[in-house]
Amino acid sequence: MAECHPVGFQWVMEAKRRGATVIHIDPRFTRTSALADTYVPIRAGTDIAFLGGVVNYILGNELDFREYVLAYTNAATIVDESYQDTEDLDGLFSGFDPEKGVYDPGSWQYAGHAPDSGDTDADRETARPLRHESHGPPIPAGTERDETLRHPRCVYQILKRHFARYTPEMVERVCGVPREKFLEVCQAWTRNSGRERTSALVYSVGWTQHTVGVQYIRTGAIIQLLLGNVGRPGGGVLALRGHASIQGSTDIPTLFNLLPGYLPMPHHAQHASFSDWVAAIRHPGQKGFWADARAYAVSLLKAYWGDAATAENDYCYGHLPRMTGDHGTYQTVLNMVDGKVKGYFLLGQNPAVGSAHGRAQRLGMANLDWLVVRDLYLVESATFWKDGPEVATGELVPEECRTEVFFLPAASHVEKEGSFTQTQRLLQWREKAVDPPGDCRSELWFVYHLGRIIRQKLAASTLPRDRAVLDLAWDYPVSGQHDEPSATAVLREINGFEVASGEPVSGYTALKDDGSTACGCWIYSGVFAGGVNQAARRRPGAEQSWVAAEWGWAWPMNRRLLYNRASADPSGRPWSPRKAYVWWDAGKGRWTGHDVPDFEADKDPSYRPPLGATGVAAIAGDDPFVMQSDGKGWLYVPTGLIDGPLPTHYEPAESPVANPLYRQQSNPARKTYPRPDNPLDPISAVFPYVFTVSRLTEHHTAGGMSRHLEYLSELQPEMFIEVSPELAAERGLSHLDWAHVVTARAVVEARVMVTDRLTPLRVAGRTIHQIWLPYHWGGAGLSVGDSANDLFGIVLDPNVLIQESKVGTCDLRPGRRPTGPELRRYVDGYLRRAGLRKG
Amino acid sequence: MSVAERMGFFTDTSICIGCKACEVACKEWNAIPTDGLDLLGMSFDNTGQLDANTWRHVAFVEQTHDGDLRWLMSSDVCKHCTHAACLDVCPTGSLFRTEFGTVVVQEDICNGCGYCVPACPYGVIDQRQGDGRAWKCTMCYDRIRAGGDGGRAGSGGGLMPACATACPTESIQYGPLDELRDRAARRLEQLHGEGVAQARLYGHDPADGVGGDGAFFLLLDDPEVYGLPPDPVVTTRDLPAMWRRAGLAALAMAAAVVASFVGGSS
Question: Could you say which of A40, A143, A671, A732 has the lowest number of CB atoms within 10 Å?
Answer without folding.
Answer: A732
